[in-house]
Amino acid sequence: MTPADGIPDELSTVDTATLAGALLANSYKSADPWVNSTGLRTHSLRHRTLSHSNDSRIAEEFLVNTRLRPHDRETDASIQSYFLDSGLAMVGRIGESEDLEASIVALPPSIRLRRNVDEVLFGRRSRRQYTGDPIGADFVATIVRSAAGVTAEATLDLYGGGNATVRFRVAPSGGGLYPVHLYVAAVSVTDLDRRLYRYDPLRDALIGCAGIDALLDACAVSDDLISLGRAAVVFLLVGQPWRSMRKYGPRGLRFLFLEAGAMAQNIHIATEALGLGSVDCASFFDDQVHALIRADGVHEALVHAIVVGDPAE
Q: Which residues face 304 on adjacent strands?
């Protein structure tokens, strides 16, 4: 078959038998009545037996249960409460913590990102192999500020007197609630101990919280796919769903995922602009990471991870 036969150029080198097999595999769904009596079900099997299996459909139920519907008085009242003095004061204190001063690590000034936006966007690729060379703490500072740094403040007058200060960050957040925390695992960073930190946007500093060996052991990807041991840093996005759900109900979880995506994209853009490599990695065993950061996996849970290093290619 050739492009003249209606096959795109990039597929024209695939042999006819392979294309026919792919077409056949995606053109029908088989009836597998035995599906409910087997213990090992691949995701492909689950998909093609949706109409007659007894499997739970949790992901689809999430989409159904987070729909926005008209005349939802409960959600309207929940949102309105955030515009009262108590709600504004609460939002104004988001991000404050009581960590011991001894655990705080100050960050150096950022590096100016001077590359053109179009060059960075269209040149970005997932880089999975790294040299093992360390990167500077100023590179890490630039990336964390690009993902979660505070960029402005505003003072709001309260109806009952006084005021509240709200802070705006680089990545957008539903209702300005910022339920996603950024953790930094310094694998090979000059002037930073090899450990796990949490970024504190209000103090623009890192808070030391744990070692990183358990984190590296929690990765399910082999080193030939992502050379995690030769990376410089791993960024963890950890969400607190109820911070959004208190205001928006189940739909707030969608907003949390959107925020995590915006933060991840900013990490990739800053990384590319700095001449480093990065790759998304969803292959960390959640329970092991939760034990490391002392999260229960429900009220606070790992959402995503990004690996960064000096690219080998």
A: 237
Cα–Cα distance, 310 to 167 (Å, whole number): 33
Hunting for tokens 């290619």 — which residue is that?
313
**What is the topology classification, in CATH, of domain 110-149+174-309?**
NADH Oxidase (3.40.109)
- What are the residue ranges spanned by the domains of the chain? 3-55, 110-149+174-309
pLDDT tens by residue, 197-233? 999 999 999 999 999 999 999 999 999 999 999 999 9
Count of H-run helices and E-run strands, the chain: 11, 11
Please report, for residues 48, 64, 126, 211, the alpha-carbon distance to residue 193 in angstroms, rounded to integers and kept in the order given.
49, 45, 27, 9
From the list 298, 302, 268, the residue with the least C-alpha distance to 282 is 302
Buried b / exposed e across 35-50, counting CB within 10 Å, b at 16+? beeeeeeeeeeeebbe
Residues 117 and 169 sit within 8 Å (Cβ to Cβ): no
Instruction: Tell me how crowded residue 154 is: count the other CB atoms within 10 A of its CB.
Output: 12
pTM: 0.88
Rounded to an integer, what distance in angstroms lies between the CA atom of residue 83 and that of residue 76? 12
Question: What's the pLDDT at 55?
Answer: 82
Residues 179, 234: Cα–Cα separation, whole Å:
20
More confident residue, 3 or 130: 130
Structure tokens, 24: 């056949």
